[in-house]
Amino acid sequence: DTAVSQTPKYLVTQMGNDKSIKCEQNLGHDTMYWYKQDSKKFLKIMFSYNNKELIINETVPNRFSPKSPDKAHLNLHINSLELGDSAVYFCASSQGPRNLFFGEGSRLTVL
Amino acid sequence: AQSVTQLGSHVSVSEGALVLLRCNYSSSVPPYLFWYVQYPNQGLQLLLKYTSAATLVKGINGFEAEFKKSETSFHLTKPSAHMSDAAEYFCAVSVPRGGSEKLVFGKGTKLTVNP
Question: Which residues fall within 8 angstroms of residue A74, CB to CB, at 6 or more apart?
């Protein structure tokens, strides 16, 4: 059983398209996150949800819209994809802020 | 503002040699510090964390790190490198943010282990 699972693992799409990445955790954690890792491996937080409530929005463009239908799921929808959105997106969860469990990542390539 | 700086984007060691990955932090409050490892095409895995208890922290896979306030450092070490240690290593600090906290990561250090 994968603790934090993301789908899809790979996503190749054209500029201007809309795409979603789904994340589910079976750890019973209250907090979930989206992180972006760019081509230079730099990791930066995008969003954090606690029990379905948005608590961190790290100046991410409005084209990115997270949705948390319940505390076990945090999905990421991206509108009007741009070349610069190409990255690996990691979902993570934690009980409290100091022990994150990461998913295996979703590699998005925008052509 | 809290941040971490990893010195050296690439470190290469021979199998059996000492591993030393450097991390310095900047924090206006007592920091919580972490080391994560990322194997190729995988997510990040927590190696160890410092949360103001013992200054010498032992983690998984034989790694340990020592918190040195006077040097604002949290360097990661392992006495004897194994081929399986080849990976990207990230130092991180927990930063208060809007009633919650977030992890701020360093830029990573890629460890290569030569046979």
Answer: A23, A32, A33, A34, A47, A49, A66, A67, A68, A91
